[in-house]
Specification:
Number of domains: 2
Largest sheet: 7 strands, mixed
Shape: globular
Number of helices: 12
Mean pLDDT: 97
Distance between the termini: 27 Å
CATH class of the largest domain: Alpha Beta
Number of strands: 13
CATH superfamily of the largest domain: Type I PLP-dependent aspartate aminotransferase-like (Major domain)
Helix content: 40-55%
CATH architecture of the largest domain: 3-Layer(aba) Sandwich
Strand content: 5-15%
Order of helices and strands: HHEHEHEHEHEEEEEHEEHHEHHEH
């Protein structure tokens, strides 16, 4: 019987950290440091150093990070925020939670990242911010983003949920705008054993406000100076993330090796392999594109190979966002990514033999046309 190849296998990461993490977990229960607490604070210090940023504020989810970032950036009800049409819908939620309007922008055909030229055409007097999403592990064009932001006085809020560890101009993603947002959803390159997120900034006053907002708007215990939220990270996630962070550089290099192996094996076929535009990629996902996406996915499933779809319904066609898409046909590149993109298995612990088996199956499928 042919061995099953999962889309991801997070158990392999746990096996690597289990021995040292279990001692901290035992202490967590002994000390009852469950909500925020010293393990989360230690993780905040570690990741701030890892990212070379002054302030890292841990929160409960990546979505919470986006919400607080939008609020801390001063986005008001009625403001407009530029966002890519092709991304996970959580990028929209923070804008909508603040009562502002996400302005959907076309994406680059090569990368799926925000098309800054298209975004520039959508700027109005109400536009106050832009949220570049560093999609699938690759930086958006931050040079163009920052030029556009400077021209119109926009705040830049980086959605770095998928690209932790990638760099632009030698600096870590998340550190180029006013605020950077991270998700630690389990399947991310740095994934929690549940949910988790992070907001980073170089602005001390913003960091203080972010810390208040995540904990009921408290300036001190039981003194609430503004409307806040219960967005604290729990201590268990702080432990898991801290131990994984110590290995993230090595884990990322292995992802790069696996991706390079895929690209070498799949280049020249009748499908599009990922295009690296900015010479840095941490390969959260390896997404190929083909008009026969659904047939290829079914074929691989028959062979015991799991795949993923990221994301099959673009935001301009989401029912809850229909009022934002005045011209649904105006996003042809986003449509292609949504209808043709197929994420192949790629995870830390995956073997070269497993990559070769997936690639062989893809080659066989494309040769059957």
């Amino acid at each position: 019987m042919t061995a099953h190849i999962p889309f991801n296998n997070l158990a392999l990461q746990w096996r690597e950290i289990a021995a040292e993490a279990n001692a901290d977990i035992a202490d967590l229960f002994a000390s009852s440091a469950f909500s925020h607490g010293r393990y989360v604070e230690a993780f905040e210090r570690d990741i701030a150093g890892w990212l070379d940023t002054p302030h890292a504020v841990a929160v409960s989810t990546g979505t919470a990070a986006l919400h607080l970032a939008i609020l801390a950036a001063g986005v008001q009800p009625g403001d407009e925020v530029l966002v890519p049409a092709h991304t996970f819908i959580a990028t929209m939620w923070g804008v909508l939670y603040a009562g502002a309007t996400p302005v959907l922008c076309e994406v680059e055909a090569a990368t799926g990242n925000i098309d800054v030229a298209d975004a520039a055409r959508r700027v109005t007097a109400r536009t106050t911010a832009i949220v570049p999403v560093h999609l699938y592990g690759q930086p958006a064009d931050l040079g163009a983003v920052n030029t556009l932001a400077a021209r119109h006085g926009l705040n830049v809020i980086e959605d770095n949920a998928q690209s932790i560890g990638a760099r632009w101009g030698g600096r870590m993603l998340g550190t180029h705008g006013l605020i950077g947002c991270f998700s630690f959803y389990p399947g991310k390159n740095l994934g929690a054993a549940g949910e988790g997120g992070m907001v980073i900034t170089a602005d001390e006053a913003l960091a203080a406000r972010l810390r208040r907002l995540r904990s009921h708007g408290e300036s001190e215990r039981y003194v609430h100076v503004e409307v806040g939220y219960n967005y604290r990270m729990d201590g268990f996630q702080g432990i898991i993330l801290r131990h994984k962070l110590r290995r993230l550089h090595a884990w990322t290099e292995r992802r790069r090796q696996l991706a390079a192996r895929y690209t070498e094996a799949l280049s020249g076929l009748n499908l599009r392999v990922p295009e690296v535009r900015h010479q840095d990629h941490v390969w959260h996902l390896y997404v190929v594109r083909t008009p026969r996406r659904d047939a290829l996915r079914a074929y691989l499933r028959e062979l015991g190979i799991e795949t993923g779809l990221h994301y099959p319904v673009p935001n301009h066609r989401q029912p809850c966002l229909a009022h934002l898409a005045h011209d649904p046909a105006g996003y042809p590149a986003a449509e292609v990514w949504a209808s043709q993109g197929l994420s192949l298995p790629l995870f830390y612990g995956m073997t070269n033999a497993e990559v070769d088996r997936v690639a062989d199956a893809v080659r066989t499928f494309t040769g059957r046309a």
